Amino acid sequence: MKYFTPELYLRANSSDDDVADRADEEWEQSIKKYQHYIDSLSNEMPPRVKKLAKTIWLHDAQLRLLAIGQDVLKSGSRLQSPLTIATLTLQQGETSVNLVYMLWDRVTQTNPRQGHPWSAVGACWLYDEIELVRPHPNRFHHRILLSDGSILDIPFYDVNVPVLPGFD
Predict the structure, then answer these.
(1) What's the predicted TM-score (pTM) here?
(2) Which residue, 34, 46, 60, 162, has most beta carbons within 10 Å?
(3) In a 3-state reduction of DSSP, which class is residue 86?
């Protein structure tokens, strides 16, 4: 995470009002810097990646499932190797959101952090960032800060975002 770091999140939730106020100002600057970064990439993002970066808001969605697998391609396919995908299922109120990523590398997750204000009640989506991997066109990282303090890093080149209402 470059803009919405766990350390900045912790400072913003500090019991020291001065520390929290300074972190809140820094957080607001991070929002502006990140938005400027995403806007600068707009022409380099496929439509579905742009949709994820600009219009999908998943703050406080509960992580239900992360599944990773390979799609076995039939003979005669134009692709020469299996397609590795990751599916991230989230619950946001009465709505289930499934993010289906086409991967170019392995998904990683840092260890959960200990102590307040990290939630001990399952992992929820706090903040996320999408980064273009230069000089490679169509290679992105989606980094997600979860409520247990861990960071999920998903290296992808495309994403599909079907939304299913009423999933429990």
Answers:
(1) 0.86
(2) 34
(3) strand
Containing 62, the helix (H) or strand (E) segment is strand 62-71
The C-alpha atoms of residue 157 and residue 103 are separated, in whole angstroms, by: 6
Euclidean distance between CA atoms 2 and 129, whole angstroms:
8
Q: CA-based Rg of the chain, rounded to a whole angstrom?
A: 17
Polymer length in residues for the chain: 168
Burial profile 31-42: b = 16 or more Cβ within 10 angstroms, e = fewer: eeebeebbeeee
Angle in degrees, 0-180, between the axes of helices 47-54 and 17-41, rounded to the nearest 10: 160
Element (H, E) at 114: none
Q: Find, among 139, 150, 10, the residue nearest to 66 by Cα.
A: 150
In tens digits, what is the pLDDT along the chain, a chain of 168 residues? 999 999 999 899 899 999 999 999 999 999 999 999 999 999 999 999 999 999 888 999 999 889 988 765 555 556 556 789 999 999 988 888 999 999 999 999 998 877 656 665 678 999 999 999 999 889 999 999 998 889 999 999 999 987 666 544
